[in-house]
Amino acid sequence: MFSYRVSGLAVASEVGLPGLIPGDPDSVPEVTIRRAPVPIALDGAEAVGPTWQRADNRFLLRIPHIARFLLEGGHTIAFEAEDGAEPQDVAVFLSGSVFGVLLHQRNHIVLHASAVLVGGKAVLFCGQSGAGKSTLAAALGEQGHPLIADDQCAIEIGEDGVPRIQADGRQLRLWEKSIRELGLADRRGDPMRNRLRKFYVDPATASDVPVPIGAIYALVEIRGPEEPGIQQPNVVDATKMLAANAYRPVLVHRLGQRDVYFRGGTAIAATSGIFRLKRRLGFDEVPATIAMLHAHWVDIGLMDSVP
Amino acid sequence: MIPTIWLASYPKSGNTWFRILVANLWSKRDTPVDINVIDSTDSIASGRNPFDQQTLIDSALLTSDEIDRLRPAAYAYAAAGKTLADPEDPCFPVRFVKAHDAYTLTDRGEPIMAGARGAAGAILFVRDPRDVASSFAHHMHCPIDIAIDRMGDRDFCFASAADRLDRQFRQRLLGWSGFAESWLGQHDIPVHLVRYEDMLADTAATALAALRFAGVEPDPARLDRAIAFASIDELQRQEAESGFREAPRKAPSFFRRGIAGGWRTDLTHDQIARIEHDHGTMMDRLGYIRSTVETE
């Protein structure tokens, strides 16, 4: 078995999962991943999507011609490859889409976000695929901000009321164009799938301990005459923004997690801050965005002065 | 359950204009709808985020062909009303969904748009290809000759770069003629043809016919108001003031002129001849009169 630490959970897997933080093989696994027969459909399914079904605590996800995944109770994942899909093809979905569903199943707050370390705290960038989360995290990494997570961020509100994020930042996942534009070719690793030009990239530095959240930014692209800027919505809008930036908002709805996100959003808004980061998209704009962030981090006390 | 109707068009053929007109028709406000908040129609069919949300799959890790195999299931799911916030109260009588995809099949032989499972019908918007050429060039920020090349290239696709992530999926256009041919030639769902020029000449009658095809009988006064609220002047005013988020990043503007026949001054004789050579047959079929004589 392979051991990993994913979003703070001890994971034992029959298959290797590239890009994850290695775990302690002696710890008791909280999540087990096995190769096993997986049905095409679930008996007594209460909810049926185009590629998924849910019955009680069982969740079936099918990616046709790649694999079927059965998640039970948030602690086991069984998978069965389809049509002779390569292990690599199955692995990227296990560690990404499937684990994201599992975190929802476990009632975690999980955001579609990347995160870097700023002044000992986590700064998160939320957005849909293609919003520029990974690129921004990578660019900030080059300026000395260690990577904490890429794509999924699991948040826990501690007993002290402090929201913390678990580290998942062993590797960045970047498209060839981003790698070229950011000048990271020398740290480019394997492709995530042989048929894709998206690669694992070693971050300059990474953090592997849970850290308190300093700020959460929802990435907003502006076009036309609108000016870039950072805004702080009121608490109600902030909690809505948090649920909208869940890894899979549909599951927040389907699994009845609105309260979890509402309480989490209130705690985060009170202790750190939830902001809207409006900026133009494009590699040329990244330095301006970082300058805007630096100034904001001084304002909110994450940094002493603009570097 | 409300019917789904595709708003299918080659780019720059009046699709967005119609969507904004519909948004104003269904708006209860007495001012024009914000062009950046057209919530009465779904986002474009090729949008990545709605797909990822509904399938729970990170489509960034799928190839375009793999995504295409899954698109029919996603479209059928949405057409069954499963993506509406409240299927009992859909807010609008029709689910209009814009598409720049030609009507094509997946590598497994299934229609990408899911045939009759994906929609009850399609409104196909067409525009004189000679006018499309200059508008398309403006849209893509490229010379008119490149736009004409792309209009004649059956392999030209939107969002097909493999080295980056686009917010939309690859869209096969099949060229200007191929696009119209693919929608008019399929037999899965009924198609209502709308010519941009007819929308300009008699907006009320043309919009009314299209809405009736979709099963909607609009109030005449509200339709007139919607037409006024979706006038080119109003669209340009809003775009100048606050931009248009559906515009390509590089294009200076989206709502450019909104006229017919501009090609007579926009294009060179060679450009006109090339378009008429490439698309003459479909132009004849759609009633666009050729100005040059083939001399081959």
Explain how this protein is built.
The complex is a heterodimer of chains A (about 300) and B (about 300). Chain A has about 300 residues and is an alpha+beta fold. Chain A has two domains: about 1-105, no CATH class; about 110-300, Rossmann fold, CATH 3.40.50. Helix content of chain A is about 25%, strand content about 35%. Chain A contains seven helices and 20 strands. A nine-stranded mixed β-sheet of chain A has the order 3-1-2-4-9-8-7-6-5, with helices on one face. In chain A, strands 10-11-18-14-13 form a five-stranded mixed barrel, surrounded by four helices. In chain A, strands 15-17-16 form a three-stranded antiparallel β-sheet. In chain A, β10 (about 110-120) and β11 (about 120-125) form a beta hairpin. The model of chain A has no long low-confidence stretch (mean pLDDT about 95). Chain B has about 300 residues and is an alpha/beta fold. Chain B has one domain: P-loop containing nucleotide triphosphate hydrolases (Rossmann fold), CATH 3.40.50. Chain B is about 45% helix and about 10% strand. Chain B contains 13 helices and six strands. Chain B has helices at about 15-25, 50-55, 65-80, 115-120, 130-140, 145-150, 175-185, 195-200, 205-215, 220-230, 230-240, 265, 270-285; strands at about 5-10, 95-100, 120-125, 155-160, 170, 190-195. A four-stranded parallel β-sheet of chain B has the order 2-1-3-6, with helices on both faces. Chain B has a two-stranded antiparallel sheet with strand order 4-5. In chain B, α1 (about 15-25) packs across α10 and α5 (about 130-140) crosses α6 (about 145-150). Classes of the chains: A alpha+beta (about 300), B alpha/beta (about 300). The interface of A and B includes residues 92 and 100 of A.
Average pLDDT for all residues of chain B: 93
Spatial extent as radius of gyration of chain A: 19 Å
Shape of chain B: globular
CATH homologous superfamily assignment of chain B: P-loop containing nucleotide triphosphate hydrolases
CATH T-level fold name of chain B:
Rossmann fold
The fraction of residues assigned to DSSP E strands of chain B is 5-15%
Strand line-up in the sheet with most strands of chain B:
2-1-3-6
The largest chain-to-chain contact, stated as pair and per-chain residue counts, equals: A-B, 41 and 38 residues
Name of the CATH class of the largest domain in chain A: Alpha Beta
What is the oligomer described by this structure?
Answer: heterodimer
What profile does the largest beta sheet of chain B have? 4 strands, parallel
Question: How many H/I helices of chain A?
Answer: 7
Assign a percent range to the helix content of chain B. 40-55%
Q: Which range does the strand content of chain A fall in? A: 25-35%
Q: In terms of per-residue confidence, which ranges of chain A show pLDDT below 50 for 5 or more consecutive residues?
A: none
Would you identify the regions of chain B where 5 or more consecutive residues have pLDDT less than 50?
none
N-to-C CA distance of chain B = 54 Å
Strand and helix order of chain B: EHHHEHEHHEEHEHHHHHH
| Count of separate DSSP helical elements of chain B | 13
Taking the sheet with the most strands of chain A, its summary is: 9 strands, mixed
